[in-house]
Design goal:
about 350 residues; alpha/beta; Rossmann fold; 2 domains; 6-stranded parallel β-sheet; 12 helices; 12 strands; globular
């Protein structure tokens, strides 16, 4: 039986991950109060399930000790391997996350947690190896299948899209590591297909593609629900998920696969972790090496065959609905919290 008390989520910032964790919690707890770390003053942390998400800012290094002295137990959520974030992945973020004070704060939150919850089995293994005494639990991340189904049905009947245009989607934050690959792909398709194949970017797009007639760019949407609704409204025929497979990348969760599969978008993925562990090649997506020719060949295969796209999209959706439905993952998320904090 779930605790009657509402849960409180304390997060580093208001990013999509924070909204996704809150969504998981709302599947089981009667209410969820979300507090961004900068707005922590005045929050009542005791007497209810407490989840701290990704917080490792040095200015909050006092918090684990504060909670321990007051015997307030908490779950610490982590979805990225900040210990392995190097300049290869992000020069700016690496300066912060590799700073000794940041690392020490991150370590303190992990050591003080009653349980560390991760969305990646590989990340869970890493945390256990680094902190042998930590209690670490892997919980599969969820996807709101019911919400997306409600959005997909009216979009299908209202579409005014030209049947002669194939739209390739790619939502992303800045990723300099894949810039050359993405530019090469888009320019190749422009030469071969003109504007019959259009690349639709949300968030980030390589500067070199600005002004290209087969490219559309949309600004990033901070609110996850609004982002997901906009993404569905674009009616993508194909999705892209390039990832270079750095050490940092290997510990990530396969969020792109859950989103593409849940939105019934057939997609091409880099043959690296975490996609190798989640995508079944030619069944629920296409896995390719990070070579321009391999990417172009895979995308061309999907462009040329609506039937292949439809088969892959359905298989991926069926898998997401079976293994990642939010109504199931949210209850599992809550079970772990209640077992380690409220038992």
């Amino acid at each position: 039986m779930y605790a009657p008390a509402p849960a409180i989520l304390v997060a580093d910032t208001d990013i999509p991950t924070t909204q996704l964790v809150a969504r998981e919690l709302r599947q089981a707890f009667p209410a969820v109060e979300t507090r961004i770390a900068a707005e922590l003053f005045g929050a009542e942390l005791g007497g209810r399930p407490l989840v701290i998400s990704r917080l490792c800012y040095p200015q909050f290094s006092w918090l684990p000790g504060y909670l321990e002295r007051r015997r307030i137990r908490y779950a610490y959520f982590l979805d990225d391997n900040f210990w392995e974030l190097t300049s290869e992945t992000s020069p700016v973020l690496a300066q912060f996350f590799r700073h000794p004070e940041t690392v020490a704060t991150l370590d303190a939150f992990v050591r003080g947690a009653s349980v560390v919850i991760v969305w990646s089995q590989r990340l869970g293994e890493y945390v256990r190896s680094r902190f042998p005494n930590a209690r670490v639990e892997f919980v599969a991340p969820g996807f709101d299948v019911a919400k997306v189904l409600a959005l997909l049905e009216p979009r299908a009947s209202q579409s005014t899209r030209s049947p002669n245009v194939v739209r390739v989607g790619y939502p992303s934050t800045p990723k300099t590591s894949v810039t050359a690959l993405v530019v090469h792909i888009a320019e190749n398709f422009l030469r071969k297909f003109g504007t019959e194949v259009v690349f639709d970017f949300i968030g980030w797009m390589p500067e070199r593609l600005i002004g290209a007639p087969n490219v559309v760019h949309h600004p990033w949407i901070k609110d996850y629900d609004a982002y997901l609704e906009f993404k569905i409204s674009r009616r993508w025929d194909i999705g892209m998920a390039p990832l270079m497979g750095t050490t940092f990348d290997r510990y990530k969760t396969s969020n792109k696969y859950r989103e593409y599969g849940g939105c019934q978008v057939p997609a091409v993925y880099s043959r690296v972790s975490p996609f190798m562990e989640s995508v079944r090649h030619h069944k629920t997506g296409l896995l390719v090496e990070n070579e321009p020719e391999a990417w172009i060949a895979a995308l061309e295969e999907l462009v040329a065959s609506p039937s292949v796209r439809s088969t892959i999209a359905q298989a991926a959706f069926d898998e997401i609905r079976l293994n990642y439905d939010l109504r199931i993952t949210g209850r599992r998320f809550a079970d772990v919290i209640l077992h380690h904090i409220c038992a």
